[in-house]
Amino acid sequence: MRAHADCGLQLATPVRLIRPDEQRAAAAMLARSFDGDPMFRYLLPGERQRAAWLPYLFGQSLAHTLPDGGAWTTGDSLDGAILMAEPGRFPFPWTRGLGYFLRFWQRAGVPWPSWHIAKNGPQVQRAIDAMHHRGPHVYVYVLGVDPKRQGTGAGGRLMRHAVGRADALGVALYLETTNPNNIGYYRRFGLEVTEEVVAAPGVPPIWAMVRGPAQP
């Protein structure tokens, strides 16, 4: 999953687990965060499509990570969220998102997927799966900050939490991003680009980034 970043000063508020009752609000916040992401703009070019599909996609991401304690935020107002998988927790069980998927299609007026996502979405997912880091690692599945709170340090606070978990476990930290503006940001946390992939002609590139295990 693509990771989105913000730049800013460190927040004083600690990170905490996202509660199950916050799933819908967190998904809506992540949808706002990723609305301008190049990959989602390509796959879901219509405003109405993105408004319907992004909350669903991030709701599924939360359904995958909440049961393992992998969904984190800062403070009480869901300024941002980081969804992670520690070693042995990814790939996620396919059954976790099934109920969420069925509830989504029960909603009236849901637009059909765009041609871009129907044609290229599976290729993008296969490319992401193929480039996934092979060694033990903490996987930053999603990182996003509410556009109104970007620049406050919420993203940095969440990233430092991910770095700390990887160091505590003695493993690498891994993520993908489809926003070139994020590459320099993630380098501040020690991640470097290990691969760049274009899943199909015209599709925005995907970058894999890794921070190696901390040295003892």
Helix share bin: 25-40%
Tally of helical segments:
7
Q: What structural class do the secondary elements suggest?
A: alpha+beta
What is the count of structural domains? 1
Number of strands: 7
Q: In terms of topology, how is this protein built?
A:
Blueprint: E1 15-17, H1 23-34, H2 38-43, H3 47-65, E2 71-74, E3 80-85, H4 98-105, H5 115-131, E4 137-145, H6 154-169, E5 172-177, H7 181-187, E6 192-197, E7 206-211
Parallel strand pairs: 4-5
Antiparallel strand pairs: 1-2, 2-3, 3-4, 5-7, 6-7
Helix pairs in contact: 1-3
Structural write-up:
It is a single chain. The chain is an alpha+beta fold and 216 residues long. The chain has a single domain, classed as Aminopeptidase, CATH 3.40.630. The protein is 39% helix and 19% strand. It is built from seven helices and seven strands; from the N terminus they run E-H-H-H-E-E-H-H-E-H-E-H-E-E. It has helices at residues 23-34, 38-43, 47-65, 98-105, 115-131, 154-169, 181-187; strands at 15-17, 71-74, 80-85, 137-145, 172-177, 192-197, 206-211. Strands 1-2-3-4-5-7-6 form a seven-stranded mixed β-sheet, with helices on both faces. Helix 1 (23-34) packs across helix 3. The radius of gyration is 16 Å and the shape is globular.
